[in-house]
Amino acid sequence: MKVWPITMKRVCVTVVTVGGVITLLGATAATTKPTGTPSEAKKLLLLTHNAFYKHHSLGPAERAVVDLGHEGGFEVTALEGYKQEADEIDLSFLSAAYLRQFDGMMMMTNGELPMTAEQKRALIAFVQDGKGFVAVHQTVVTFYTFPRFGELVGAYFAKGPIFDSTNSSKRIAVLKVEDREHPATRMLGAHWTLHDELYQFSKEAWNPSRPDDANVGPTGHPVPIAFSRDRVNVLLSIDSEQTDFAGLESGWERGGDYPQAWYQQFGNGRSFYTSLGHRADLWQSDPLFRAHILGAIRWALSLEE
User: Fold this and answer.
1) Which of 106, 26, 123 is nearest to 69 (CA)?
2) What is the pTM of this model?
3) Selecting from 3.40.50, 3.20.80, 1.25.40, 1.10.10, what CATH number does the domain 6-167+197-237+260-300 have?
């Protein structure tokens, strides 16, 4: 197996404004740097900016993805966005020109991130024009006011978590592996049992003629699009026959359909989502979860089929 050395670098972003030129010395970026020429390795941008609720797993997730780049032969630019408070998030550097240097983007974000309409269009075009995209866990709570982003991810959060707010009781869910050929799931058997904060996704868009349906996300924004299996290829779902739903609120039913990970072709690009990743220890030391994420990234970057 090749060994890829890790280097640390400082990211310097130059933003031209009407008033002049502002040079932003961004957060230290942890970068996996393969040996040889830079063109040998695919490049992944990792965003962990959380504008709604800051998960404790963000730091371990960033470090894990950098480590996975070291293991998997791709270069990771991690901006430590999770260290910025919600009202201090600065994404002004993100533009079509900035994204051009990357082959893929990974997001572990939430809330209405401070991005202009032009920046949002650039993000969508980045993937649609042939690049890769990986969304993890709370990213389904991002940009309820920008439905095209929901189409890119595949869904919006609507209900959950399955057991309690963080599954502090550590109740076990049984996941059905619906596709064992994909790089993100080929290391799994027919089922995967674990405890994590698992979600349910809105299967219908908010209807203003039925305001009492309360089909809104945790940020208070209406859900603009519905999840549909017709648009994505589901990899993992909760096995609702084998998972113990005793004592759960209405909406979690035996025999119900609760997808948890999927992929899709998005224009000429690739998009992947997994609901897993709330627990910091999954990122730090769980070999199956880390292999799941590594396979997802390598697929998104077209390093594996």
Assistant:
1) 106
2) 0.86
3) 3.40.50
